[in-house]
Amino acid sequence: MKALTALLAGIVFGTGLLVSGMTDPANVLGFLDLFGDWRPQLAFVMGGAVLVAAPAFWLARWRSRTLLGEPVSLPARSGVDARLVTGAAVFGVGWGMSGLCPGPAIVVLASGEPLIFVFVGALLAGSWVATLGAPKRPAAPARTDAAAAPRSAGL
Known about the structure:
mainly alpha, 0% strand, disordered C terminus
């Protein structure tokens, strides 16, 4: 059931990227070109993503298990550090140079265009290199039902 859910989520995500035009690097690069031929589509895509994700994360805070029965494990907040800033900068430079980020790049693999395979190969290599220096983090403990109970008397 988990694999089917992941497959369906991937299909919905990929379809959304195709329909919104975010698999076309020209749209992303046009969004970044504030003083040229600016294309606002990406702002609407991001806004739509926030409108869907924010309520889902809010609801997840109050649950101890997912709809499929897995323990809810949300990341703990942590501060901004050099590793985060460096990763964001590398991501931003790559995104600005290519007009693609990982999600759209995987969708564009279906085109068979040779350069996209180079991009995804570099993406995978960069991800692997980033894990080499990453500190090993223990898995977050699953919350108990008592920890997942609403924290407000009004809920």
